[in-house]
């Protein structure tokens, strides 16, 4: 298996040491797992330092996933000569925003 820590090293400027270590443990466990992926399963596949509570704390942490994913893409995949198409899914956020605006507009029509 390749060295996950070396691949995730580019995230060191965005994550504190503890979160980076936890992400490395979880990523290694996810790559080794087969079948059902649960927090309990992840904790069983991690090495020392990857208890169930540690996995819970990591997934409850507020992380800027868009920035982390962009950092990984930029450091591992992007080259100057290639063209890339990036897409995201913000539909849930926009639907919530629209749903919040509908009652206010309906009151104005009456």
The average pLDDT is 77
Low-confidence stretches: 102-110
Global Rg = 19 Å
Main sheet characteristics: none
Describe the global form. globular
Whole-number total of structural domains: 1
Q: How many H/I helical runs?
A: 6
Q: Based on helices, strands and strand pairing, what is the structural class?
A: mainly alpha
Straight-line distance between termini: 65 Å
Order of helices and strands: HHHHHH
Which bin fits the share of residues in helices? 55-70%
Report the β-strand fraction as a percent range: under 5%
Tell me the number of strands: 0
What distinguishing features does this structure have?
single chain, 110 residues, mainly alpha, globular
Brief write-up:
The chain has one domain. The protein contains 6 helices and no strands.
Walk me through the structure.
- The structure is a single chain.
- The protein has six helices and no strands.
- It is mostly helical and 110 residues long.
- The chain has one domain.
- It starts with a helix and ends with a helix.
Blueprint of the fold:
Elements: H1 4-8, H2 17-32, H3 39-45, H4 52-60, H5 65-76, H6 91-109
Helix pairs in contact: 2-3, 3-4
């Amino acid at each position: 298996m390749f060295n996950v820590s070396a691949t995730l090293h580019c995230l060191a400027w965005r994550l504190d040491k503890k979160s980076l270590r936890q992400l490395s443990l979880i990523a290694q466990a996810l790559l080794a797992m087969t079948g059902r992926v649960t927090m309990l399963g992840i904790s069983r596949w991690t090495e020392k330092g990857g208890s169930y509570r540690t996995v819970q704390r990591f997934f409850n942490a507020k992380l800027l996933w868009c920035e982390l994913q962009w950092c990984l893409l930029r450091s591992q995949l992007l080259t100057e000569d290639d063209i890339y198409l990036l897409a995201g899914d913000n539909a849930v956020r926009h639907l919530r925003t629209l749903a919040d605006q509908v009652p206010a507009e309906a009151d104005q029509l009456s």
